[in-house]
Design a protein that fits this description.
This protein has 16 helices and six strands. By secondary structure, it is mainly alpha-helical. A hairpin with a 2-residue loop joins strand 1 and strand 2.
């Protein structure tokens, strides 16, 4: 018996070893099977996805090829507008790209923009919906006017905004423009210690832009850049602007990216949404309190709330508020920043501007009157040359067609997303061009070219720059006085590379 036990023990150990090896082999086979199935599933998904992508393309329209699943997203990761412009030299002024599975028609010249957008404004009156901005960021407060799909509600909001920002209405805002412009110069003087310290003008420019938006919409001001509300709105709106970008959100075009359990992009979008809801509620409550106390001043929100015939809902009022908040940073702020950068690098333009201001208004009145109607022609020309030279939004807000459009025999079907590459349009050569010059055949920034006629072709975004020009009109003469009255008040913000 004692001799048998070791033998049985050896048999038992051998059996256990064989079982272990069998289990390991089985696990290996399962792992291999799972790997094969996963790879096969991935290849099948890519194949089916490529078939879907091919069928989604606009028939008869050329365009660059792309990578599986992502399409052309990899090509535009650095500078989308410039890459679109380069592709135009290969595929023509109008071509198509694919962002993920989404086909997008890109317009790269003023002539093509006039033909497609100008002649089909009703067909392109809607906006596409993107996952990050429309489904995550805008889930509670809604969307801005410029990012809303076409609807009866959008028509009401557009009408209300147009009546608040048309030419007669803008004339009533002159005192606000004058006040904010003077405060802008005062801040340059204060933070620059009367010309002894170089200053970064961006916070001053952001305060000017934001204060104007808040004043016109809620009847209150952002008095100082030291206010907590200024810092909060500036930070949140800047982040939301990134979520609104057509190139910075991978999950907008690749649904699989939304399934990521550690989706920090969506988490950050929800956090910005929460923070925006807080200051929107505070601004709205403050206005309601002033209305109840009888101390409110005329503004867009108060005018609608007090108008018994107004048919705007609370959500529609919020949409107008979001539009006012987001519009300034993308237009007024960037244009003013670029002009400041230009002036710091072009003392000859500063000299000329100051000379013209002194000649027109005299030594006793270095600042123009608030009611002055653009009488100093050089300043008007300087503003318009800035608007011509600097593209506020390189890629204008995307559009979505609501009916078929025909361009050069190619049918752009209903539901197609259309991008206007304003950067390429404004860099295009126009010959013959209005006012006797061709844009970008001579890239020199030269306001004198507009000195006589006072006119300029500002590209396809002219309608968006009117409000910007009105702000600069009162601001630029103030900058000239401070820059030369106190030598050394020079921002260190550098001009962007063209």
């Amino acid at each position: 018996m004692p001799g048998i036990l070791p033998h049985r023990s050896s048999q038992l150990q051998g059996t256990q070893g064989s079982s272990t090896m069998a289990l390991v082999a089985l696990d290996t086979e399962k792992a291999q099977a799972i790997l094969v199935i996963s790879c096969g599933g991935l290849l099948l998904y890519i194949l089916v996805n490529e078939i879907i992508r091919a069928r989604a393309r606009v028939a008869g329209l050329k365009g660059p090829g792309g990578l599986p699943i992502v399409g052309n997203l990899w090509d535009i990761r650095i500078d989308a507008a410039e890459q679109y412009r380069k592709w135009a030299s290969v595929f023509g002024d109008v071509y198509q790209i694919q962002l993920g599975n989404m086909p997008v028609v890109v317009i790269n010249s003023s002539a093509a923009a006039k033909s497609i957008i100008g002649q089909n404004s009703q067909a392109l009156s809607s906006r596409p919906e993107f996952y990050t901005f429309h489904k995550v960021v805008s889930n509670t407060a809604g969307t801005t006017i410029g990012t809303s799909p076409y609807s009866d509600s959008l028509k009401r909001r557009r009408k209300a905004a147009a009546s608040a920002l048309n030419r007669p209405s803008v004339q009533t805002y002159v005192k606000h423009l004058d006040l904010e412009s003077c405060d802008f110069v005062r801040e340059l003087y204060t933070y620059g210690h009367a010309g002894q310290t170089a200053v970064d003008p961006m916070p001053m420019i952001q305060r000017l832009s934001l204060s104007l938006s808040v004043t016109l919409n809620w009847g209150t001001r952002i008095i100082s850049q030291e206010e907590a509300l200024f810092a909060e709105i500036t930070e949140v709106e800047e982040e939301i602007s990134r979520f609104r970008s057509t190139t910075g959100n991978l999950q907008d075009y690749i649904p699989l990216a939304r399934l990521n359990p550690i989706n920090t992009h969506s988490f950050k979008a929800r956090e910005m949404r929460r923070r925006r809801d807080v200051y929107l509620t505070a601004l709205n409550n403050g206005l309601e309190e002033r209305i109840a106390a009888g101390t409110s001043t005329p503004c867009i929100q108060a005018n609608v709330l007090l108008d018994e015939e107004a048919k705007l809902s609370k959500d529609e009022l919020t949409s107008i508020s979001l539009t006012m908040l987001s519009g300034g940073p993308d237009t007024v702020t960037t244009t003013l920043a670029w002009l400041v950068a230009l002036l710091t690098n072009r003392p000859d333009i500063q000299e000329k501007a100051l000379s013209e201001i002194r000649a027109h208004y005299g030594e006793e009145r270095p600042l123009c009157d608030a009611e002055d109607d653009q009488q100093c022609r050089y300043i008007v020309a300087l503003v318009r040359e800035t608007l011509r030279y600097f593209t506020v939004l390189r890629l204008a807000l995307p559009r979505a067609s609501v009916k078929d459009i025909v361009y050069n025999g190619v049918v752009i079907p209903n539901g197609t997303v259309v991008f206007l590459n304003a950067w390429a349009c404004n860099m295009g050569i126009c010959s013959p061009a209005p006012h006797g010059f061709s844009r970008w055949t001579n890239v020199e920034f030269r306001p004198c070219r507009l000195g006589r006629s006072g006119g300029v072709s500002t590209g396809a975004l002219a309608s968006q720059t009117r409000r910007t020009a009105l702000h600069i009109r009162y601001w630029i003469s103030d900058v000239g006085r401070v820059s030369f009255g106190q030598q050394g008040v020079v921002p260190y913000y550098h001009a962007p590379a063209q």
